[in-house]
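User: Fold this; tokens only.

Assistant: Input:
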Amino acid sequence: MQIDPDGTGTTFATIDPAHLPGSCPGGVGLTTALTVLPGGWVAVGSLPTADGSAATAQAGCLLVLDRFGTVSETIAGDGVNGPWDMIAVSRGRHSELFVTNVLNGTVAANGAEVGRGAVLRITLEDRGDQPPQRVATTEIGSGFAERTDPAALVIGPTGVGLGRGDTPYVADPAGNRITAIPHALTRTDSAGTGRVVTSGGSLNGPLGLAVTSRGDLLTVNSQDGFIVETTPGGRQVAVKQINNEGSPAGAGALFGFALDLDHDAVYFVNDALDLLH
């Protein structure tokens, strides 16, 4: 869907898994890994499942669509395994995708927790009217806890946002914390799960994550409908419930969200009622 600032929604793309321009193991199952690249290209994650259960989940891919909603390219393999969330940073002719992946050994564990969730940095080169080309993939984060879940499909590293400098922050719902991966634009190896910024407190299964213009972190809880603001130094400074549907109140309602262009409000998906606020 394409949502205009006035709230008008139109269909941007309808994706046929039988007619993709490249490999996407398992087909199409879109996730909140979605970003817009220079030239109007849209990259979106696919974590497919044949019957809606984690038991049939497959590695999937990233789909790259042109500005008209046509899938022009797939990015699969080389560490792409259940892309769950994503941000992009573009500089000159190159864009860096930071992608969380949640299927490294998860399905085989059959509900048991495994420490194999990963964050990839995928470097794309701009080719003008042609789809951007992957030129490098680097695992910059690893060892995040992940498991299958009958309600959420998968619990694993989710929201990712870039702070000042080159430090991405990762929402780690299984660990109920936010971590930071240093030197993410230049590092050539994994930082593991990175540095713990904050844990516990008002966090309650954080999923979506965004960074404000002043560098604070906003996360939304999967278990109680609250949004939490945390400073880069790890101090939780504000908390507000933005959804109270369901029982317990707000549980399962919040996932993806984003800041508006003025950075003074947020858009969030209400999974309880299938609405955008």
